[in-house]
C-alpha cells in the first residue's frame, strides 16, 4: 500500500527540473510564506562535511538523549523510508504528520519552482517549530554555503567533519573550493568545531572562522582522541576522559565521536556520564554495520561475517579499509566485497583503498536506481583499481558467487562487506528485513 506521504513526495519531485540547484532564494521564499519556522527552533547544531556527518550527528543525539534532553534531528539521505530524515524529540515523524506537513508546504509553495530537498527541508523546520525540544541537530544535504539548511542565522555551534572529494558535478574537484563551500555554514561569533582534516581544508576553514570572529575548536589542536587498551581516550582543555570504545565500529568512528564530544562539551550540554552512555548506545545503520540474520545473510557461506557500509567516495573507502584491516588483525578471514555504486562516483579511487586486502569483488547494479553503474561497468572500474572482480545479477547472486569461491578455496569462514552506496545499503536493509 502506498502511503500518503509517498504520493506527495512524488508530486514534489516535479516542482523543479533540477534535482539539485544550489541557491537559497527558493527555500527562503517558502520559509517566509510559512511564517519563518526556522526562527522558532530550539538551539541548533549545524553539521557539514564530506564524510562522517551522519555518524557525528548520531553520536551527538545519543549523548544529548543520555543527558535526558529532547532532540530534533534532520538528516539525509534516508535508507528505507523518507521518515528517517525527520526525528521529532527522539521519535521518527509519523506518517500522518509527514503527509500533512508536505501537503501544507506544497499548498503554500503554490506550484513555484523549488527542489525536492528545499521543500522537504522547509517541512522539517516547520515540524521542528511545532514540537518542543532542547536541541536541533541539522545535517547539511550538500555543500554548505548554498545548502537549504543554511538558513539558521545564529546556531549554537557549527561542526565540520572531514572534507574530501565527492559530488564533483556540483562542488568540483578543487579541495580548497569544497572546503570553502562547507565553511559557508560558519556564522559570525558562532563556535566552529573542526573534525580531523587534512592541512589544506583545515586552513581554509580556520581562515573563514577567523574572518567572522568565530572561535575555533579543532581536532589535533584543541581536542584529541585515540584508542588505548581497548578504551577510547579523549582529551581537551577541560581534561581527560577514559571512555568505552564507540559502539560504531572503525577507527574513524573514534574521530567522529571525539568531534561530537567536543561540540557538546563546548556548549556545556552533557555530563561525562552522558558522553559514556551515548558511546555505548549510539545507533547508525549502514556504517560498518554487522548483519547477523535475515534472508540475504542466509545466502552467505556458513560461518561468514556479513557487514554493510554505505561509504561511496575515496575518503570513505579509506576509512572502511582501515576498519577492515583492524578486523583482519583480530581475526584473519578472506575478505570479499559485494558492491554497487552510482555512476557519478569515483569508483576506481574508492576501490584503490582495498588493494592487498580484498580477495575478490563481486559487482552489481543497484536495484531500482537509474543512476547506478551497471555491473559490467563497475567491474571495469574495479579492475582498473587492480582488484580481481566478477559481475553478478543481484545481491543474492553475488552472495552465491562468494559462497562458491569460498568452497572452491576450502575456506569456511569468509568476511563479506556489502558496500559502495547508501542506496544499495537501503536496498539491502529492506530486502534483509
From TrEMBL:
One Pfam family, short name: Mur_ligase_C
Domain Mur ligase C-terminal: 300-421
GO CC annotation, single: cytoplasm
Cofactor: Mg(2+)
Gene3D superfamilies assigned to the protein according to its UniProt record, in alphabetical order: Mur ligase, C-terminal domain, Mur-like, catalytic domain
Gene Ontology biological process: folic acid biosynthetic process; tetrahydrofolate biosynthetic process
Keywords: ATP-binding, Folate biosynthesis, Ligase, Magnesium, Metal-binding, Nucleotide-binding
NCBIfam families noted in UniProt: folC (TIGR01499)
Function: Functions in two distinct reactions of the de novo folate biosynthetic pathway. Catalyzes the addition of a glutamate residue to dihydropteroate (7,8-dihydropteroate or H2Pte) to form dihydrofolate (7,8-dihydrofolate monoglutamate or H2Pte-Glu). Also catalyzes successive additions of L-glutamate to tetrahydrofolate or 10-formyltetrahydrofolate or 5,10-methylenetetrahydrofolate, leading to folylpolyglutamate derivatives.
Residues in the signal sequence: none
Alphabetized SUPFAM superfamilies for the sequence: MurD-like peptide ligases, catalytic domain, MurD-like peptide ligases, peptide-binding domain
Enzyme superclass (EC): ligase
Pathway as given in its UniProt record: Cofactor biosynthesis; tetrahydrofolate biosynthesis; 7,8-dihydrofolate from 2-amino-4-hydroxy-6-hydroxymethyl-7,8-dihydropteridine diphosphate and 4-aminobenzoate: step 2/2; Cofactor biosynthesis; tetrahydrofolylpolyglutamate biosynthesis
Family of the protein in this entry: Belongs to the folylpolyglutamate synthase family.
Name of the featured protein: Dihydrofolate synthase/folylpolyglutamate synthase
EC number of this enzyme: 6.3.2.12, 6.3.2.17
One of the record's GO molecular function terms: dihydrofolate synthase activity
Domain Mur ligase central: 47-263
Catalytic activity: 7,8-dihydropteroate + L-glutamate + ATP = 7,8-dihydrofolate + ADP + phosphate + H(+); (6R)-5,10-methylenetetrahydrofolyl-(gamma-L-Glu)(n) + L-glutamate + ATP = (6R)-5,10-methylenetetrahydrofolyl-(gamma-L-Glu)(n+1) + ADP + phosphate + H(+); 10-formyltetrahydrofolyl-(gamma-L-Glu)(n) + L-glutamate + ATP = 10-formyltetrahydrofolyl-(gamma-L-Glu)(n+1) + ADP + phosphate + H(+); (6S)-5,6,7,8-tetrahydrofolyl-(gamma-L-Glu)(n) + L-glutamate + ATP = (6S)-5,6,7,8-tetrahydrofolyl-(gamma-L-Glu)(n+1) + ADP + phosphate + H(+)
